[in-house]
Design a protein that fits this description.
Bound molecules: protoporphyrin IX containing FE
Distance between the termini: 43 Å
Number of helices: 6
Number of domains: 1
Radius of gyration: 17 Å
Number of strands: 0
Length: 171
C-alpha cells in the first residue's frame, strides 16, 4: 500500500503516540491506571488523565467533523479534506488509550450489564467508523457520498456511546 504524505504523517504520529504511551504505561504513577476513585484527571470526575484526554480529544474531533460536514455542504472540499484528516488524527491518537483500556480491562468491561452492552456496541461502531475514516482520508476507499454518510453516522453513534460510557464508568 503506497501512502501519501498525510498517510505517512498519521502512521508516524500513531507510532510515536504508541511508543510514548507504552513507556508511560510501563512506569505509571500507580494512581493513573486505576479505573475509578482517583482524581488524577482534568475534568474533576473519577476518570484518570488518559480517559479525560480521550474525552476531550474525541469531542474536539467530532466538532471538527461537524465543521467538515458543513464545508462539504458548501462544496468547499479542500477544507472538508483538511478537517476530516484532523478528526481521524484525533480519533487515532485517542484509540491508543481506548484500545489499551479495552484489552487490559476486557473481562470486567465485557459483561451482561448496561456498561457491557455500551462497550460492545461502542467498540463495533467505533472500530468501523475509525477505520472507514482512515481509509477514506488515505484514499483507500472510494470517496462517495454514501461511504462518507456511513462513516459519519457510525462516528456519531460511537461518539454518543463513548460519552455514555464515560458517564457510566466515571461520573
Ligand atoms: C470514531 C471512533 C470512536 C469515538 C468517537 C470514540 C469515543 C469515545 C469517548 C468519547 C470515550 C469516553 C472517554 C474515555 O472513557 O476514555 C470512549 C471510551 C472508550 N472507547 Fe471509544 N471511541 C471510538 C472508537 C473506539 C474503538 C475503535 C474502540 C475499541 C478499541 C473503543 C473503545 C473504547 C473503550 C474501551 C473506552 C473506555 C476507555 C476508558 O477506560 O476510559 N473506542 N470512546
Amino acid at each position: 500500500m503506497r501512502l501519501n504524505s498525510a498517510g505517512r504523517l498519521i502512521v508516524f504520529v500513531l507510532g510515536e503516540g504508541a511508543v510514548i504511551a507504552n513507556v508511560y504505561l510501563n512506569n505509571p504513577p500507580s494512581e493513573v491506571l486505576t479505573r475509578k476513585g482517583n482524581f488524577m484527571g482534568l475534568l474533576g470526575t473519577e476518570a484518570n488523565l488518559f480517559a479525560d484526554m480521550t474525552l476531550i480529544a474525541q469531542t474536539a474531533g467530532f466538532l471538527i467533523l461537524l465543521l467538515g460536514w458543513r464545508y462539504a455542504k458548501r462544496k468547499n472540499f479542500l477544507k472538508h479534506d483538511k478537517t476530516s484528516k484532523a478528526s481521524v488524527l484525533l480519533g487515532g491518537l485517542s484509540f491508543i488509550w481506548m484500545g489499551f483500556s479495552l484489552v487490559s480491562n476486557l473481562v470486567p468491561l465485557i459483561s451482561v450489564t448496561l456498561t457491557g452492552f455500551v462497550i460492545f456496541f461502542h467498540t463495533i461502531t467505533g472500530t468501523i467508523a475509525l477505520f472507514m475514516g482512515l481509509f477514506l482520508v488515505l484514499n483507500e476507499i472510494k470517496k462517495t457520498k454514501t461511504s462518507m454518510i456511513i462513516a459519519f453516522s457510525l462516528w456519531t453513534a460511537a461518539m454518543f456511546l463513548g460519552v455514555m460510557l464515560y458517564y457510566l464508568l466515571f461520573v
